[in-house]
Write a structure and sequence with these properties.
Rossmann fold, 247 residues, single chain, alpha/beta, 15% strand, 44% helix, 7 strands
Length: 247
Amino acid sequence: MRKKNRWVLVTGGSRGIGKALVTNLSRDYDMVFTYANSEEKAQALTNNINAMKDHGNVIAEKCDVRDIDCTKALCSQLIDKLGTPYGIICNAGITRDNIFLKMSPENWYGVIDNNLNGTFGILHHMVPHIIQEKCGSIIFMSSIAAIKGVIGQTNYSASKAAMLGFSRSLAQELSRFKITVNAILPGFVETDMTDLLSEQKKDIIKTIPLRRFADPVEIYYLVDYLLSDKSRYITGQEFVIDGGLTI
């Protein structure tokens, strides 16, 4: 059953996990998603979903979440047009891998600015409005890299670990307004990002007890639950979806 008058914002929604979230959540909510560069993919996704029956309206908005002025303008525009979002999924993430001794400042700050500071920018402008509604759900899309060291990803791991501390503290602050805040830590998921691991994939799968990468829709199932009224007593938690990799 569609949730009338409820819309959800997904940052980084044109591909990978974000695409699966936008596609599947649109069955129950109106959706807005951001993208930075993949305009063709974003518009194709929007057109495809909006052509489907029994799906909510989907809007794609170009926004570099690293730009605080861009996020402020987008949030103001969305509030004026659609009202307050019921849910926000902080999913925009990039990698710029290299071993630490060869990590450039540009790649370090680029990942931190996008994955962590971009999350701050969106929430900084949206949370005051959600507080007024006294209901809602915020979901941080972290990673098992936050809890399991990964060679070549000191920047990515740092950004995703910081999201966990961010989500716990925000959960404490917003609980009195009946707003839940949780984090999801996916392992390896079948996306265009992990497609780059083609030569290593067989070896990686051997380290996963369930012997496969996750389907993006399996991340959606948990997101859908955390957005629903069934999870209203769950906040400040971290959910690992990794096929047993971090056991």
